[in-house]
Amino acid sequence: MKKLLLTIILIPLLMAETVTGQPVSSLQGRIYTDGSPVLVRIKNGKIAETVPLPPDSSIPQVYIAPGLIDIQINGYMGVDFTGSNLTIEGIIKVTKALWKEGITSYLPTVITGSDERLKTNFKILAGALTDPELKKSIPGFHLEGPYISPVKGFRGAHLAKYIRPPDWNEFIQYQKAAGNGIKLITVAPEIEGAIPFIRKAVENGIVVSLGHHNGSAKDIEQAVAAGAALSTHLGNGCANMINRHNNPIWPQLSNDRLSVSIIVDGYHLTKEEVRTFYKVKGPGKTILISDDLDLAGLKPGEYIRGERKVLLTPNVIKYPAENVLAGAASPLRKDVGNMMRFTQCSLEDAVNMATRNPAELLKLKDIGKIQTGYKANLILFTIKNGEIIIQKTIVDGKVVYLRK
Ligand SMILES: [Zn+2]
Predict the structure, then answer these.
(1) Centre of ligand 1 from the C-alpha of residue 210, in Å
(2) Among 347, 369, 344, 345, which Cα is nearest to 357's?
(3) Ligand 1 centroid to residue 293 C-alpha, Å
(4) pTM of the prediction?
(5) Number of domains in the chain
């Protein structure tokens, strides 16, 4: 009993210490944009100034960059944001695990589910934001579905029975449950009622993304005219067999007003797709996402997830019953390294695709860049065999992860 009591007292204390971390007033390293030595001064959790330093061998051989921002993450370490047993403790667990991977901001992503589940889970997520430490790393939520294509292949691993046409009044209920926290929604433009829904969402400050759809060129054009700004995991959430001329990929690629989010884990897209998408959209309109599922970070094997049996292999999760991928298991930092290897883009561009670009899409004006007045959400990292290795993660000027 005594031991139990001690554990109960110690756990919150230990957690508080890890969550709070140590404040830092300055950092030295190589700026990620061109590798030159810099000193970054931090004051009151914000970047005060960035000072160039003379070349000197004593400057640590680590890169300094803004913390990674992941706008699509379904869960991590066994915690599922759409699951039936979501808790605030679970959200704390995910956030801390993501800090280790250099993610300082993320949008917990709730996918297609029953009306009750969506309301319940958004309420829990909104509740988590009353924790000031969590709020620092969760600028909002992403709702992927339930207003997507019900057609096999396009719906991916979303359950058909919960997919429904867009309903603004229903969405308002979710937004209320979420404390107005839903910042991004993925919808299919060809579903009846989608275009007016998109218009309304955009008018209400929500970023609309097109995904899990089989929209025609006209549907996509109308959706963009209504304010859709992004394509969710372009090249995925799409049937294996499509018409070579008339398919949803070309019109999204060719539309200059659409940015794209892509999963560059080496499994969800071929190298050639990544290169092509990048050549078309460029470093300003490409956003890297992990799309990690709750199983990310766990041991490979078969798992029952919700009402589905899925197979976790290293870095990717499959849904064998419908022969589709069910999501990824690679942390975002790996996508950054893969992006450089696949496209030969610079470190600066690859990092921007996982920091500046998602922040700009969501109109988050104080994260995603190393600039005076921006939040001191920073990562220090090295690169080994083309992979980003996080050495230190800083949120709001405090160390939240230090590699031992
Ligand atoms: Zn998806």
Answers:
(1) 10
(2) 369
(3) 10
(4) 0.93
(5) 2
DSSP string, 193-259: THHHHHHHHHHTT-EEEE-S----HHHHHHHHHTT--EETTTTSSS-SS--SSSSSHHHHHH-TT-E
Q: What are 144's strand-pairing partners? A: 111, 186
Give me ligand 1 centre to Cα 232, in Å.
7
Cα of 156 from ligand 1 centre, angstroms: 7
In the reported structure, the alpha carbon of residue 212 is separated from the centroid of ligand 1 by a whole-number distance in angstroms of 6
Contact 34, 348 (CB under 8 A): yes
- At 39-96, the pLDDT tens digits run 999 999 999 999 999 987 788 889 999 999 999 999 999 999 999 999 999 999 999 9
Q: How far, in Å, is the centroid of ligand 1 from the Cα of 201?
A: 19
Burial-class residue 61 by CB neighbours within 10 Å (0-12, 13-18, 19+).
exposed
pLDDT at 315: 83
Length of the chain, in residues: 404
* Residues 116 and 189 placed together within one structural domain of the fold: yes
Residue 162 lies in a domain: yes
What pLDDT score does 265 carry?
96
| 45 and 82 belong to one structural domain | no
Handedness of CA 305, 307, 308, 309 (dihedral sign): positive
Residues of the chain with pLDDT under 70: 1-20
Report yes or no on 109 lying in a domain: yes
CATH code, domain carrying 57: 2.30.40.10
Residue range(s) defining the domain that contains residue 241: 68-361
Q: Calculate how far, in angstroms, residue 248's C-alpha sits from the geometric centre of ligand 1.
A: 15
344 Cα–ligand 1 center, Å: 27
What pLDDT is attached to residue 2? Answer: 42
